[in-house]
Amino acid sequence: MATTASLAPLFRHSVGFDRFNDLFESALRNEAGTAYPPHNVEKHGDDHYRIVIAAAGLVEDDLDIQVEKGVLTVAGGKREHSEGITYLHQGIAQRAFRLSFRLDDHIEVHGARLSNGLLSIDLLRVVPEAAKPKRIAIEGGANADLTPISQQ
Any idea which architecture 36-131 has in CATH? Predict the structure, then answer.
């Protein structure tokens, strides 16, 4: 009996860690079980991401979205049923849920919308100028001064 460890559950709840995700996904192609409710994490360009959560039967008041210390948390639960409703068959899940997504540095939530039973949360990577890579010019030549730059 062979056992294979999958790191897919770790990356399913992370956004912006693409290099690690790509590295481990290529090494481990085994998909683990899914979490409730079903959801997708989509990449729409270098800096644009979207989380889409199946929220069948829920309205805006049933959902709560928060970001705290780099963790995006989406919670939902159905309101109390109206008096007089009797279900002959209830196939739409009504259980409460809480999903958490660890966000990479500089990932910001730019909005959320609920349409056709899908909750879409748009994310954008906004890197400040101070954190962007900088190209450093190289001085040189045969007669380069060997005095440390800080002393010049």
Answer: Sandwich (2.60)
